[in-house]
Amino acid sequence: MGKILMKGNEAIGEAAIRAGCLNYFAYPITPQSEVAEYLSRRMPEVGGVFLQGESEIAVGNMLFGAAGCGARVFTTSSSPGISLMSEAISYISSAQCPVVFVNIVRGGPGLGGILPSQADYFQATKGGGHGDYRLLVMAPASVQEAVEMVMTAFPLAEKYRNPVMILGDGLIGQMMEPVEFPEHLRTEPSNKDDWATNGMDTRKSNKPNLVKSLFLSAELLEEHNVILKAKYDRMKQEEVRYEPYNIDTDYQALIVSFGTMSRVCRTVIDDLKAEGFETAMIRPQTLFPFPEEPIKQAALKESCKIVLSIELNMGQMVEDVERSVQGTRPVHWYGKAGGDVPTPEEVIDVIKSFF
Amino acid sequence: MAKTFKKPEALSDQSTHYCPGCTHGIIHRLVAEVIDELGIRGRTVGIAPVGCAVLAYNYFTFDFQEAAHGRAPAMATGIKRVRPDLIVFTYQGDGDLASIGMGEIIHAANRGEKFTTIFVNNTVYGMTGGQMAPTTLQGQRTTTSPAGRNVEEVGMPVKIAELLSALETPAYITRQAVLKPKYIVRAKKALKKAFQYQIDGRCFSLVEFISTCPTNWGLTPVEAIKWAEDNMLPYFKLGEYKTPDDVEED
Amino acid sequence: MAYKHTINKDLCKGCGLCVAVCPKNVLEISDQVNSMGYFPAYQARPEDCVFCTTCCIMCPDVAISITKVVEEEEQE
Predict the structure, then answer these.
(1) Cα–Cα distance between B242 and B210 in angstroms, integer?
(2) What's the CA gap between A21 and A14, in Å, rounded?
């Protein structure tokens, strides 16, 4: 099946089906309501479940119940909706259920705007809900990458029995690009008989399963948190993904940027290269686990004078970049939070201002 | 006429944490008896609330999930949609269902989700120490209505059975009580009917149980039964408020 | 056919509901504390018990059971 031109939101919906996920619960919110519209037609065609809940709070808990009884499930929403789902996300993480959340980020805080943003970086990577939990967070920079990240999210969620979040933005959701759905990324849901509440008859067992997150004893809750942390540490070992750009040159500035913003930065790097001024980029594809080591190493290059975290917010990932660079180079932030995407020229001016 | 009586299979051997005379224990037994009699233990999934019954999963011998406060109907919806063959029930108190979870229960009922809700109405938040609930009676003192519920300030107690019965979608809604053996026997029939509607895939079902909370009412278990009969039953009238057959009759 | 009424004194929390509903006034609260620190109910007048299960229905802790007992002679 060759490439077809598809809107990001619809491609994300189709990607879930192609990955083998036939259960979608959601609530309308700009800029990603098209996913629900698309799946309200598609899911019945493939014998899947489509349900529009009464609120994102309800949707988050529908996902929890469905995942808890062993089904593969996912949802898409946007910033304020993800805030409402954050309680459920904390419960799902503790109860260790695999659920895929797609956040097509819009400007915030509050009702904010409906234009593209990356201002949910902290919410996604530092925990929008309560307690010590982390999400595996992937940030696509194109519709094709969004498709592939959504498809790989399901086996990852099952591997770690943990929610996985795709952090897109309004552009990824709204623009149309040619896509294909790699057949090899379709996976069978893993067997969940040892923990899911799928009915004792289903697994021919007389031992009930229990999906819960309450631990009234301090020792048991401590033990539980240690188990969860071990998963997050394992993610740091095995799941870091990033894409270097123009890294094999004597670049004077290192850019760290993800998603839509990183595409503008590629143009910046190409334009500056044409002027004989080398710059490079590390593009995190996973925001958690964050590519600390590659950024640390890239900043240490002799020629590199400064590191710039360029993001569509008021400075969030910059803190992780600073943590990675560990003071070996000055780290700066540049970005916009209203919904405008900086032009290459604007970014070039900012870079040049440091030289 | 002499009869035998024993603990139902669906109930575990664990002694409950409920206070002496708390009628949660009776309702747990009724649920277990009905599940045994309908032979559905192997495909039943219970959903515990946040409240005194949060530990309900320790007292049953089948699959259980534990919901965030008020969200059990949404979890039940999730399960029924992906596994309609499973028998699902939520077990919720009045704080859980009628306060924080009001949105969830109304929309689940209105969508006609095919699960069963066991709604335990004892007019207070038990686990957290006896605060006012949406079902606290007018003038009833609680730890957050020390001078008695002032309906001018916080409105009248919520009648869940009547409220949900006003929805057009077919459902089985009944209010029962577990205050005396005669009520308990009737309540068990209603509960069995509710589960049967679910087994038949017919409609959403909710059984409200008028219950006691001796500890937080500051009464002995026997006094609490009397208080509930004298004060709750006149306001929360028992009866079958809605059955799926009604719709055809109109 | 004989029946046996048993109160599991270590499950009973001494709430007194069974005592209140017994139609034959058979039950009372014991003054012997059980392992949980409660004073359980017991059959003060077992001979009056008619095995109607009213107490069992009322008990919140499933502490009361009634079983059929096959008499010794019937076994031979």
Answers:
(1) 17
(2) 10
Task: Evaluate if residue C75 carries a pLDDT over 70.
Answer: no
DSSP category for residue B60? B
Chains that touch C (3 or more CB pairs under 8 A): B
Q: How many structural domains comprise chain B? A: 1
Q: For chain A, what percent of residues have pLDDT higher than 70?
A: 100
B76: tokens are 């039940």
Rounded distance, CA A266 to CA A88, Å?
37
From the list B65, B74, B81, which residue is nearest A197 (CB)?
B65
For chain C, domains (ranges, CATH) are: 2-69 (3.30.70.20)
Under 8 Å CB pairs connecting chains A and B tally to 132
- Residue identified by tokens 């689940």 is B108
High-pLDDT (> 90) share of chain B, %: 97
Three-state SS string over B205-217 comes to EEEEEECCCHHHH
Fold exhibited by the domain A4-197+228-237 = Rossmann fold (3.40.50)
| CATH number of the domain residue B220 falls in | 3.40.50.970
When pLDDT is averaged across residues C6-18 and rounded to a whole number, the result is: 97
* Confidence at residue C1, expressed as pLDDT on a 0 to 100 scale: 74
Q: Which residues of C touch B23 (CB under 8 A)?
A: 60
For the segment(s) A242-352, the CATH number from 2.40.30.10, 3.40.1160.10, 3.40.50.920, 3.50.70.10 is: 3.40.50.920
pTM of the prediction?
0.96
Verify whether the Cβ–Cβ distance C60 to B3 is below 8 Å: no
Contact C62 B29 (CB under 8 A): yes
Q: What is the mean pLDDT of chain A?
A: 97
Residue A261 confidence (pLDDT) above 80? yes
Establish if B185 touches chain C: CB-CB under 8 angstroms: yes
With an 8 Å Cβ cutoff, are C58 and B5 in contact? Answer: no
**Inter-chain CB proximity B21 and C13 less than 8 Å:** yes
Interchain proximity B64–A212, CB inside 8 Å? yes
